[in-house]
Amino acid sequence: MFQPVSNQVDFPAQERSVLEFWTRTNAFENLRALRKDAPQRWSFVDGPITANNPMGVHHAWGRTYKDLWCRYHAMKGAELRWQQGFDCQGLWVEVNVEKELGFTTKRDIENFGMANFIALCKQRVLNSAAQQTEQSVRLGYWMDWNNPAELRMLAKKIVENPNEIIELERGGEKVRGTVEQLVGKLGMPELGGSYFTFSDENNYMIWSFLKRCHERGWIYRGTDSIPWCGRCGTGISQHEIDTEGYKDRDDPAITIRFRIRSQAADPAVDWKSPEAQAAFDATPARFILAWTTTPWTLPANVMLAIGPKLRYAIVRQSHAASATRDGESAIYFLGAGVLKMLRGDYEVLGEIDGAQMVGWTYEGLFDELPAWIDANKRWADKHGFDAERIFEHCVIPWDEVGEAEGTGVVHIAPGCGPEDHKLGKEIGSPMVAPLGEDGHYLSGFGDLVGRHAHEVPDAVEAMLKQKGFFYRRETYRHRYAHCWRCSTPLVYRLVDEWYISMDELRHDMMRVTETINWVPSFGKERELDWLHNMHDWMISKKRYWGLALPIWEYPDGTFEVIGSHEELRTRAVEGWQEFEGHTPHRPWIDGVKIKHPVTGQIGVRVTDVGNPWLDAGIVGFSTMRFRADRAYWEKWFPGQFMTESFPGQFRNWFYAMIAMSTVLADVRPADTILGFATLVDEKGEPMHKSKGNSIEFNEAADKAGADAMRWAYARQEYDDNLRFGYNYLGECRRNLLIPLWNVYSFFVTYAVADGWQPGADAAILTPLDAWILARLQQTVNETDRALDAYQSRPAALAIERFVDDLSTWYVRRSRARFWGSEMTADKQAAYQTLHNVLTILCRTLAPFTPFIAEVMWQNITAGRTLQDAATESVHHQLFPESRALTAAEEALLRETEIARRVVNLGHSVRSQSKVKVRQPLAGARIVADAAARAVILAQRDILCDELNIKDITFAERAEELVSYKVLPDLKKLGKKLGQDLPRVRNGLAALDPAFVAAEVQAGRAITVDGIALAADEIIVQAQPRPGLVVAGEAGIVVALDTELTEELISEGLAREAVRRINDARKAASFDVSDRIETYYHATPRLATAIQLYENYVKNETLSVILQSGVPENASTSVDEFDGEGFTIVLIRIH
RNA sequence: GGGCGAUUAGCUCAGUUGGUUAGAGCAUCCCUCUGAUAAGGGGAAGGUCUCAAGUUCGAGUCUUGAAUCGCCCA
User: Fold this and answer.
1) CA A722, C1' B71: Å apart?
2) Domain boundaries in chain A?
3) What b/e string do you get for A1070-1099 counting C-beta neighbours within 10 Å, with b at 16 or more?
4) How far is the CA of A502 from the C1' of B68 (A)?
């Protein structure tokens, strides 16, 4: 027997009961056991969520997909690994721990103690993982989760006493070790649960990967000018500056005049006039104008670059742009296309090709600074020059120089920018690197020493003014790279970092990328584009918490890469004892030293930590036992599926996964990669806590429920940003959950009342039953096909359409079949059909909305509530099987569509003629072709009932209802007639449409203006005759006989009375089956109608007595409608 | 600066090889059905298809240019 169901339901509360049910019944573990060693396996490779903060609603998007396909494939009978992971190492964790401690610089960390700091990083990860675990469970995400309480216990102890020996119990076995050691084993086979990228195996597996790269000669140390965050004290790799890294910023833009020291002896100048040339010759103060938005780089200026193909203007300004020597006349060189940069009046004396200026020399801005003198010494030393020799600042050609902004002259500081650095290397110029790790000036820069790069524009300006080099200053708004973790504006620094060379790997990775099924398909092009353009992969960071790069350097500058814990143990000559028993992290690993086997030199580990994408990219190997159990790895790798949000991941996780699987196995990481866009608020704005428009996951789950959220994600188009909010969630609830629940509650309510049980004799199904079953099969087919192709939206929309059909056609049309107290064969068929539909629908919906599917399934299959100790779950079932529809099913689907169209048209006519449906009408006249007529006849009863009419007739002559419009078939005639078309069109319009229609229907050609048109070149459209109240669509026209007889009016009134009485019953909270006594006062016409239809009214209202005259003192309900007055008193019979 | 994409109703988006009267959902308003419904149904209103030029008998659709907005890469 089914458990009674209310039609009002608190979905979030119900979901919490489902979660308890799953826990209590071990539903997830039972599923694992059921599918263990199944012949099929389906391997999902999880992209780790950063365990640093609570989970957000944007995470829930991807996690819904992950769970959707895991559940789907489990329901297809496959075995799964069910392991998801946490990303644990890297700067983002450090930044948050620093914030909590109030630290602002790296020195703070070192004073605090690196070991203490690392422990806090681990603690933060473990606590975040515990919280994210709880939130994921709340979402209905089935995975092999850790117990959050255990994670919190480890988090507590890892700070209090990481060396305490503890035991963790796993399946009756005890795993013993120090807290630190056990934390390092999380996710590994002995402990199970989620993987953590800080695990020992994850770190050592990366060592193994890096060693492999080193063996191929790809690891190198490079000096480059790279984006640098002064706050974090680390380089930011190209991979990390994604769109979020760029922000608008106002910077001072300074135009500098560089005093020319020597120019070519006889440059080819196009003088405006001989006077102009004379004026030039008479003016000794000559400058080249350059422009920069980064004044802090000026003390590092070495050269100026001009565009060799550009033209440069020679102008004279007599009053001074220069703030220092007012009144002095000066000559300026600048791009001929950017004269607007000049301030004040000027006179153009001539023009010169950029190529002519190459090699000119100029006076350095700050040649007296010790930094420049030192840079020259190093330069001379490197090139074997005399130590006194000084590099002359000069003009060099560079094709990239343009005139879009600035003066057409670019100031080159090889220590302060990547392009500058490249040019400096090509020329072999000195390099001046002004900034330290913290983004402040190093010594040798006079007054600037110790000041931050972004603080010094005023000081630089003053220095330039004092020397007469300043021309002008303005404010310039541009997009500038900021640190993606702490939002500090970046600077460029010349540093040593470690790289993996992409020269050889690039093409292998592109080949592997080609073999992946990218969803949406443009993903492949994006990834290839990135691979095509990307520079060498910078893998080092000068930080603390992360992968210890396994690179040991010797005093002579050579280095080695160590590939495993074991290898390090055999090679260690110092520090091993202190390290042993610790996870491979700083500071413990830093003390281990090795000895060069040949030279005997002692090698020391570089202190850098690794790029966190190494951590996330290796998980296809580290978590799948690549080193320990190759058979297991081969079983599960490559995976079938991985998914993440697109932005950033082409160069981050997707990239790292492809790189590592290419290097280690020359294979793709997964067959299919699904990417999706970004989650924004309902207005399309990015969600930010600071903006107040963000929605917390917990809040959304509490308010809207996880099923509604999951549905919102599932029905989303992958390429489009998801506009997430409560309106949209409400829409999801209204589109799916509420209609579904209503159907379910309707079914259960009546089945309980009737004592109906599944499994009774097979009943004879009506066409309506057969129709909904065919629709269901069609929906199963569509859903299965879409999910198989990793397309959630078409699947979700198919289900929405089905639920709508089920609710608004099948159940609505079947309601009367469930009424009455007898169990008729027809009722039996209706129960059986609806039960069947709901059972299969639960299994279809289970991967999408696991909560509601479980609740319904428990009740309708076994009459259980969530409090019962069931062992079965809908999630243990198999997904409904697809099969091709039979011809009869296809026909049924088409026919019902026609019938529903007739109903819509009928309602439309009633609405237009303002006759409400409750008023019966004599009949409808319909124009339809033979096929549609047959369908309408077959469904006559339903149509009459639905439209509240007595009969349906077909118009013998269509002209009774319609007129014809004849049109040329432009698609066919356009090409044939070309310019003659307008003439033919007009000619055709002038003919009698009825005549043309008749000819065309007879298949005869029509001649218009001397041109013959075949019958199939003319389109005949039937449309309602003007003046008639009819509605038409797709060849069917419906007219209603709206003439009311006294009899019809009476029937309408009786029906209205029934409705009023039933409303009153409802208002009085009577039960559906309560018998009543009904007393009334009615105006004469209504009273007559009630007497006329007495039995009908009694039946419909369950009135045992229906009597005119209202008892004294009874509480009455008074009504007025259609000009009639109606007063009633209802008394329930107990 | 280069590449890709977009611009259609108040909002979010469809719109097939160019074809006759440009659609849907949400929101608004009116009407209506209902003893499963928090639903459902009918209707109204809402459009210079970003702009300009071109090709064509015919352009939301094709071409060129402009503007604005995304995304990717420099």
Assistant:
1) 15
2) 235-492, 550-607, 710-885, 892-959, 962-1024, 1046-1132
3) beeeeebebbbbbeeebbebbeebeeebbe
4) 38
